[in-house]
Amino acid sequence: MLGFFPQWSGAFPQNWPQELSLNGQVWFGLIHGTAAVTLFFVLSGFVLTRRYLLTGDQQIILRGAIKRWPRLAGPVLITVLISWLLFKLGAYHFEEGGAVTGSPWLSKFAYAFDVPFEPNFWRALLQGSFLTFFKGDSYYDSSLWTMRYEFIGSFIAFGLALLIALPAPSRLFRPAIIGVIYLLCQYAAPVYAAFPAGVALAAFLPEREIKLRGLTFGGFVLVAIYLLGFTGNSNGVFFLVSRLFGSGSTTNIHILASVLLIVSIERAPDTIRQRLSGRFAKCLGTISFPLYLIHVLVLCSLGCDVLIWARTWTSGFYPNIVAGIVTILGSILAAIPLAIFNERWVTLVNTATNWFMAPESLQKPTKKNMITVE
According to the model, what pLDDT value does residue 244 have? Predict the structure, then answer.
């Protein structure tokens, strides 16, 4: 939408009247990218610490901390190098595409940079493996702006989980610590607050399986989607939310919606949980991260090529629609090999982490070791 239908996105009020925007629709949370990032961060804080807070096994946190950087860096580096190659081959046509649709976002390579730069292999190698995580560079792929927050936020989650697992002098200890860290994260950057929110959910969500009824589950999900669509706009269906919480509390609203959605899924009826654990759902889970990494590259190359080509034989919105469809299909296809690499990379990183933490357990048995065991 930002690339091919910018007038509907509501992101460029200076270019198009607000009446054309879909921002403010009750279902806008289904396509609101900023809210989706917050949801991902809350989910990350939850997933990274849930097992530890249930079992108390500190090895889980240690393993997670050791492998966090290489686990993320592998697929990120591959994506950055692909982008470098597309630059060198002249496969990007985002400037022409942006001129066609009028999208400032597309014209500037999905806001990856403000001025053109000379692609450099060694700089791309350094960015994908290091600078993206420790400096925040993302001009080879603007989607990677989230990686620095994810990397730092992961360690916020790890540290907070260890802290609240300490013997508590009172029942207020854990909520107080989480509240303090949440406020500190808000001060540093509001999006960081999503991680302690995820840890809080991991700590206080009961382990016992309390199922939601179908209507309750559906109501929770609908409310979560509604809140995820809030952008600070006080018009239309979000008037009450804006009045109650203020237009400057969008990240907190998205965090609340994310917690509500995760609780809904965790306590969903058995029939829904089975569908969410089926083969199709697992395939979506497998390609989700690679799809996130690769889609901007496909949009700015193949998508823009198709947009320009389609304008030679049709007019109106049809070229944009064709380009959008091809971009979606092309992104999914491009994500498949990256997903295969990602799966193997995670296996390799897990094996290396296990060897680092317990090298003797992975050594081939020798006569001396066998005698010792006996």
Answer: 80
**Which pTM was predicted?**
0.91
Give the residue ranges of the chain where pLDDT is below 50: 361-363, 365-374
Of the candidates 248, 66, 65, the one whose C-alpha atom is nearest the C-alpha of residue 157 is 65
Closest CA to 112 of 89, 132, 140, 91: 140
Tell me the HSE value of 257 on the side-chain side, using a 13 A CA sphere: 28
66: CB partners within 8 A, 6+ apart: 353, 356, 357
pLDDT digits (tens, 9 = 90+) for 320-348: 999 999 999 999 999 999 999 999 999 99
The pLDDT assigned to 246 comes to 74
Here the tokens at position 151 are: 């990397």
DSSP letter string, 235-297: SGGGHHHHHHH-TT-HHHHHHHHHHHHHHHHHT--HHHHHHHTSHHHHHHHHHHHHHHHHHHH
pLDDT at 371: 37
- Residue reference for tokens 């994260």: 185
Task: State whether residue 21 is helix, strand or coil.
Answer: coil
Residue 26 backbone dihedrals phi, psi, to 5 degrees: -65, -25
